[in-house]
Amino acid sequence: MSQPPKQAGLELRRLLPFLAFGLVLTGSVLTLSATKVAGLDENNCLSCHDNPELIKTTADGKRISLHVSEEALSKGAHRYIDCTTCHTSEPHKTDTPLTKLSLAQKCGSCHQYQYKLHLESIHGQQLIQGNPDVATCIDCHSPVGNPHSVIRVLEYNAPTYKKNIAQTCGQCHGNEKLMANYGVVEKVYESYMRSFHGKAMQLGTYEVTQLDKATCTNCHGVHDIKSASDPTSPVAGLNNLANTCEQCHPNAGTNFASGFLGHKEASPENIPVAHYTEILFTTLLISVVSFGAIVVIMAIIRFSANKWRE
Ligand code: HEC
Ligand code: HEC
Ligand code: HEC
Ligand code: HEC
Ligand code: HEC
Ligand code: HEC
Ligand code: HEC
Asked: Which residue, among 70, 148, 142, 64, has the nearest Cα to 106 in the 3D structure?
């Protein structure tokens, strides 16, 4: 009668070594992956740099935070790269200006292709001249503008993920005051969000299949963004613009492209046809609604008058 339980006990005892082996294996895999993450700080740089209060004061009195967040770092695209790969084994020997330009140069030492395009773009051209207002690598690749929290381009929370791109550009291009300094008066972010493409993008989910509409970079480029008045810009002139639309609207042609207002707001000087059509439709709408309202009011009055007479 006691046969079955005995056998079960035997089975368990036989399994024990395997169970123990499995446990050790899981343990070592876990430890291995843990050392892999910690591997990016082989020289214990974070023993000082994980301190949020570590600050450097430059010759001209600017205070720059030298804090490197371990948490942000371990979520980033470079989590398997050791500090010294980017900073040399003697990072304190050199005195970097820690500007947007020196930053781009450092990123560019590995990402040469993107760096080269960036330097020729409107943003990069201004950067070379020392303008800190323009976008450089981390303005588009880090949600917090930090070189140690660059996120892979296709992660949902990346500023470069297609659904988030308009907001990434909008940080600066939605800032009217900043843009006025450069003579850019068109409200490009707002007008994009009002457009068919912008609305459809907003309504869609994060699935790739929902992201086939145009965002800023589909029309302007990514690392090679040019001024809209530069003849090589993909939005300059009807021919270039038509080519740009044709990426997604096959055989669009210049006729299709010419119907596009860009970011312009219709006004008497600017696209008068659209401006007056807008006024016409607004007037029509108001008259139709008012006419309807008058008819209803008259009907109510007549109804009440009849009731009162009765
Ligand atoms: C003992 C603490 C300590 C350790 C360990 C340490 N740092 Fe620093 N680090 C500092 C301090 C303090 C400064 C600011 C120096 C100054 O004011 O110029 C600094 C500055 C820097 C800077 C800015 C340099 C510049 O151009 O001005 C970088 C980059 C840097 N550290 C990287 C590293 C890396 C990489 C490691 C590991 C290999 C490391 N640090 C280890 C304390 C430390
Ligand atoms: C993938 C490359 C990369 C890795 C890995 C990296 N850094 Fe940096 N780090 C940069 C870049 C780029 C800058 C900006 C340099 C500039 O402005 O000239 C920077 C700047 C810094 C600064 C100056 C303060 C700041 O935030 O601009 C410190 C300090 C620093 N890094 C420390 C570290 C430490 C410590 C590690 C490892 C835990 C590390 N870095 C890993 C690329 C890297
Ligand atoms: C104006 C915003 C912007 C700036 C500035 C910018 N990037 Fe990008 N970057 C993007 C976007 C958006 C993508 C995604 C590209 C795509 O979907 O085709 C991207 C993609 C990348 C990729 C992935 C490979 C590729 O080309 O698709 C790397 C690497 C990269 N950028 C590095 C850099 C470096 C380095 C700099 C600075 C020299 C930089 N980026 C400046 C917006 C920017
Ligand atoms: C030491 C060389 C090196 C430096 C310096 C460096 N990167 Fe990278 N970067 C890499 C490598 C290698 C990868 C691929 C990592 C991986 O796939 O695990 C990468 C990945 C990326 C990606 C993700 C690409 C993708 O396909 O999603 C972006 C974006 C990026 N880097 C931007 C930057 C920016 C911005 C800087 C400056 C702050 C920078 N990198 C500095 C080597 C570097
Ligand atoms: C469907 C194509 C398309 C999309 C999407 C698009 N643009 Fe444009 N953009 C244009 C065209 C065409 C022009 C030139 C005509 C004009 O200025 O309106 C332009 C002009 C601009 C200008 C220059 C305006 C000036 O006054 O000089 C900026 C800046 C700009 N766009 C930024 C953006 C940003 C940021 C986004 C995303 C929020 C975006 N664009 C989305 C087509 C597009
Ligand atoms: C950190 C701020 C910042 C971010 C982020 C940024 N830009 Fe810009 N951009 C600027 C500034 C400042 C200028 C003005 C430079 C000039 O006109 O000399 C500019 C210029 C431009 C121009 C040329 C405007 C003209 O005169 O025709 C275009 C187009 C443009 N940006 C598109 C984009 C797009 C698309 C994105 C997002 C992928 C983007 N920018 C992200 C700051 C930014
Ligand atoms: C990245 C791809 C892409 C680019 C580039 C693009 N579009 Fe679109 N556009 C779409 C998608 C997708 C739709 C939605 C089509 C649908 O649902 O029928 C759309 C819809 C439209 C619509 C409204 C619906 C319709 O089919 O009439 C207009 C108007 C339009 N686009 C104009 C343009 C113009 C003008 C350009 C060039 C300046 C352009 N688009 C560039 C992807 C793009």
From this structure: 148
| Proximal ligand: closest to the CA of 162 | 3
Tell me what the mean pLDDT of segment 142-163 comes to.
Answer: 96
Contact present, 121 and 224 (Cβ < 8 Å): yes
Sign, CA torsion 235/241/245/247: negative
Nearest CA to ligand 4 atom 17: 77
* Model pLDDT for residues 161-194, shown as the tens digit of each residue: 999 999 999 999 999 999 999 999 999 999 999 9
Distance of alpha carbon 123 from alpha carbon 226, whole angstroms: 8
With pLDDT > 90 as the criterion, what percentage of the chain qualifies? 67
Count Cα atoms within 13 angstroms, Cβ side, for 256.
Answer: 14
Q: Which atom of ligand 1 is nearest to the CA of 56?
A: 17
> Which residues, 6+ apart, have CB-to-CB distance to 19 below 8 Å?
none
Task: Output the residue whose Cα is nearest ligand 4's atom 33.
Answer: 107
Q: Backbone dihedral region of 130: left (phi > 0), alpha (psi from -120 to 50 degrees) or beta?
A: left
Atom 23 of ligand 3: nearest residue by CA position: 153
Q: Which ligand is nearest to the CA of 102?
A: 2
Ligand 4 within 6 A of 81 CB?
yes
**Rounded-to-integer distance, Cα 76 and Cα 92, Å:** 24
